[in-house]
Design goal:
Strand order of the largest sheet: 4-3-5-7-6
Structural class: mainly alpha
Number of strands: 7
Subcellular location: Membrane
Protein name: D19L3 mannosyltransferase
Strand content: under 5%
Radius of gyration: 29 Å
Membrane topology: Multi-pass membrane protein
Largest sheet: 5 strands, mixed
Family: Belongs to the dpy-19 family.
GO molecular function: mannosyltransferase activity
Length: about 725
């Protein structure tokens, strides 16, 4: 806890950029040459100023979140153990490998310790580089060791400043995406301002620094910006090749730094598939993007010692299926409307069926079960039957994996972001539906176009991609709150592009019979400026107050626990307890763990369920036998879990364990009819009574207001 202290050519596309159309067949006299030179100078000046603004905003964002982090914890003044405890849950686990590499006698020894790790999971040697996405920690630790900065910068500051620096990359990428879509850097400025003023819903980097998404999302934003540029018309071959290289690098880095990369890129692949089916993107470019996704993921697979979860990912199966089926269906985009619709439906069914067949085949060969908990969770979440599966219910009961709270929209509306986003989304979705129908109409396309051109907007490929991207990731965010950061940040770029685009203002003005080119251009600049003034007026004082509010880290019970462990237990001691706490134990003390929060492994999930019997209704003999089977020397019990009140009945950890064990839950309320009373009381409560049946196996060696530590007897 903390306390306050004082102190846009192709079907359905538009080749023209978002600029006034020039008159044709004009004689190249001196005046026109002068105008042309002046136009080039103006473009250079605009790009220069826009670039400077982008970099400045990026750096300011980095400083902003770094200051918030310092002010919230007084990070520069607290002890090392307190700094490490501030890296809660899995954040602490990831940071521990950076610390381990820094403290190793050599880089080679540090790498060997990660490849042959026997301290993260007791009585088992695992390959951390294969299991977890920690190459960023390895790279940073090596960089820290070889750079002459040890005397000036502590390892922890080198680490957190790198993460805060990536926020600059993130904001610049969003700025560039909006600029590319609208044709003016003013939209980029608005996107960055929206990102900052909606910080609560766009990022959580300042309090979950080592979290994998904080490493990955800046690279994902760079990839989206590069895809947006790739989908522009009239690119030179050299520009196209260079952009493909940037996309590959960004895709690779995104995949390398986050274990959920395959699921995010699957949604991206679905967006490309939908647009390609409706002939809204150049097929050749879409093919390259499919190949880049596969190759980037496979390269990560190699670096992660052929991680089975990557090989069995739906993304690889889906992209391979699309390429195979498209090679078979060569005349997919020819014929009348009904003919094309029939072929399109068949195409979709073939792709989905082949995806499932390939994925099932791969998983069967590799005996892959690492991601089964995700599919169990999704099955239960979307109402395909109730489940008593402990792992699925553990996710279902967490607020982060629930539906997006409604108050999110009120916060986004306060900055006008959500209102603008909905307007832009409605207009571009209408345009997308008309363009898709026109593309499928075949011979009737021109006739239809003549009838609708005056009243609708057209849709450039880059705008079409960003539209489907935001729709799909919006659906993901609405269903799973933790994934909202993928949507809300892109929402800033998408909404600002719409507000600064004549593609949006043209149909609005035509509807009220007020359209002229000059008026549209005046509005596309004046409205964003008004929005920026409003945001500055309303939120600048609040940001200043936020930056002046000083807090201090305060968690004396956990500090006392970590200090006791370091002083009173051997370095080889094995600790059991909750996943979240044990991550901190490893970071702060270096002791061996029985389980940890990185949940993407079947054996670990089974092990965690067994360890958690300490909070179930089990006999002391059963609990002792389970703990000793994992080599446990010390057991840490937490009152906050044993007597949990944060979740409602049915979602408390002890309730999940009771249901999984077939026992009736505690407290008033209904129970399923087949659940029965347990023969034993709850272990975490009964052990505190010091009954002989418990003291023969467990002896209390430490306690404070939050934690109770028991040493396990070593019976022959």
């Amino acid at each position: 806890m903390t306390t306050v202290r004082q102190r846009r050519v192709g079907k359905g596309t538009e080749a023209a950029e978002d600029q006034p159309s020039e008159e044709k067949n004009v004689k190249p006299d001196g005046k026109n040459r002068s105008d042309h030179t002046g136009g080039k100078l103006w473009n250079v000046l605009s790009v220069t100023v826009g670039g400077i603004v982008a970099i400045s905003l990026g750096l300011l964002t980095s400083v902003y979140v770094a200051t918030l982090h310092e002010n919230d914890l007084w990070f520069s003044n607290i002890k090392e153990v307190e700094r490490e405890i501030s890296f809660r849950t899995e954040c602490g686990l990831y940071y521990s490998y950076y610390k381990q590499m820094i403290q190793a006698a050599s880089i080679q020894q540090g790498l060997h310790g990660l490849v042959y790790d026997n301290k993260t999971e007791s009585v088992r040697t695992i390959n951390i580089l294969e299991r977890m996405n920690v190459y960023q920690e390895v790279f940073l630790s090596i960089l820290y060791r070889i750079l002459p900065i040890q005397q000036y910068l502590e390892p922890v500051y080198f680490y957190i400043y790198t993460l805060f620096g990536l926020q600059a990359v993130y904001v610049i990428a969003l700025y560039v995406t909006s600029w590319l879509l609208s044709g003016t850097w003013l939209s980029g400025l608005l996107a960055a301002c929206w990102y900052i003023t909606n910080r609560v819903d766009t990022t959580r980097v300042e309090f979950t620094i080592p979290l994998r998404e904080n490493w990955a999302l800046p690279f994902f934003a760079v990839q989206i910006a590069a895809i947006t540029y790739l989908l522009r018309t009239h690119l030179q071959p050299a520009q196209e090749r260079l952009t493909l290289v940037v996309i590959f690098i960004a895709t690779f880095l995104f995949s390398l730094t986050w274990q959920f990369n395959q699921f995010m890129m699957l949604i991206q692949a679905l967006a490309l598939f939908i647009l390609d089916c409706f002939d809204m993107l150049p097929t050749a470019k879409v093919t390259w993007l499919y190949i880049i996704q596969i190759s980037g993921l496979l390269l990560v697979c190699v670096l992660q010692f052929f991680n089975n979860m990557i090989l069995g990912s739906l993304l690889i199966s889906f992209n391979a299926s699309v390429l195979i089926v498209r090679a078979i269906q060569k005349n997919l985009k020819k014929g009348s409307l009904l003919n094309r619709l029939g072929k399109l439906i068949l195409h979709v069914l073939l792709v989905l069926a082949l995806t499932l067949v390939i994925n099932k085949f791969i998983k069967k060969i590799l005996n892959l079960e690492s991601d089964e908990h995700i599919f169990k969770f999704l099955k239960a979440k979307f109402g395909f039957g109730a489940t008593r599966d402990f792992d699925a219910n553990l996710y279902l009961c967490e607020e982060a994996f629930g539906l997006l709270p409604l108050n999110t929209f009120s916060r986004l509306s306060d900055t006008l972001l959500f209102y603008v986003y909905i307007l832009v989304l409605f207009l571009l979705t209408t345009a997308a539906v008309i363009v898709a129908f026109r593309n499928l109409s075949g011979p009737y396309q021109v006739q239809f176009m003549e009838k609708t051109e005056e009243y609708t907007i057209t849709l450039k490929p880059d705008a079409a991609y960003n539209l489907i991207h935001t729709v799909l990731f919006g659906c993901l965010a609405l269903s799973t709150m933790r994934m909202k950061y993928l949507w809300t940040s892109h929402m800033c770029a998408f909404a600002s592009f719409g507000l600064c685009s004549t593609e949006i203002w043209r149909p609005i003005l035509k509807c009220v019979h007020l359209y002229t080119s000059q008026r549209a251009h005046m509005i596309k600049y004046s409205v964003p400026i008004i929005a920026l003034l409003y945001i500055s007026y309303k939120f600048w004082p609040g940001i200043m107050d936020e930056l002046s509010e000083l807090r201090e880290f305060y968690d004396p019970d956990t500090v006392e626990l970590m200090n006791w462990i370091k002083s009173n237990t051997p370095n080889t001691a094995v600790f059991a307890g909750s996943m979240q706490l044990l991550a901190g134990v490893k970071l702060c003390t270096g002791r061996t763990l029985t389980n940890h929060p990185h949940y993407e492994d079947k054996h670990l999930r089974e092990r965690t369920k067994q360890i958690y019997q300490i909070y179930a209704k089990r006999s002391p003999e059963d609990v002792y036998r389970i703990l000793r089977s994992f080599g446990t020397d010390y057991l840490i019990l937490e009152d906050s879990i044993c007597y949990e009140r944060r979740h409602s009945r049915g979602c408390r950890l002890r309730d999940l364990l009771d249901v999984a064990n077939g026992h009736i839950m505690d407290g008033l309320g209904e129970n399923e009819p087949d659940l029965k009373p347990s023969l034993y009381p709850r272990f975490c409560e009964e052990i505190k009574k010091n009954l002989p049946s418990y003291t023969i196996h467990f002896s209390r060696v430490f306690q404070n207001k939050t934690f109770h530590v028991y040493k396990l007897a070593k019976h022959k």
